[in-house]
Amino acid sequence: MIISSMVITLTLIISTVVMLISFVLSKKTITDREKNTPFECGFDPKGSARLPFSLRFFLIAVIFLIFDVEITLLLPLAAILKMVNMLSWFFTGFFFILILLLGLYHEWNQGALDWAD
């Protein structure tokens, strides 16, 4: 009982000392205007919220999210290689990648990846 309270006290003291040292040694200044803004994406947070936004950035972001999620679905194929039949593993991976490539071709054909107007 006494040892656990000593460990908790020692942990609190060490963490407090580390936080104080970090606070003293940090190079953060109050006058850094860009770091004090709510976000650092290039927009002025005090300006109008109804500024026009390029739809191409939104489309690229959505395409990135779709392919990012599909890559996370593709990664377990490598993990289950030794657990399943090689032929079923190959066809599953082939059809999954085929669907990805068809989606990419469709996006390319629709002009979502074309930046020139």
TrEMBL record:
Signal peptide: none annotated. InterPro entries: NADH_UbQ/plastoQ_OxRdtase_su3 (IPR000440), NDAH_ubi_oxred_su3_sf (IPR038430). It is a multi-pass membrane protein. One of its GO terms (cellular component) is mitochondrial membrane. Its main location: membrane. Gene3D superfamilies: NADH:ubiquinone/plastoquinone oxidoreductase, chain 3. It comes from Oratosquilla oratoria. Core subunit of the mitochondrial membrane respiratory chain NADH dehydrogenase (Complex I) which catalyzes electron transfer from NADH through the respiratory chain, using ubiquinone as an electron acceptor. Essential for the catalytic activity of complex I. GO terms for molecular function: NADH dehydrogenase (ubiquinone) activity. This is NADH-ubiquinone oxidoreductase chain 3. It is found in: Membrane; Mitochondrion membrane. Its EC number is 7.1.1.2.
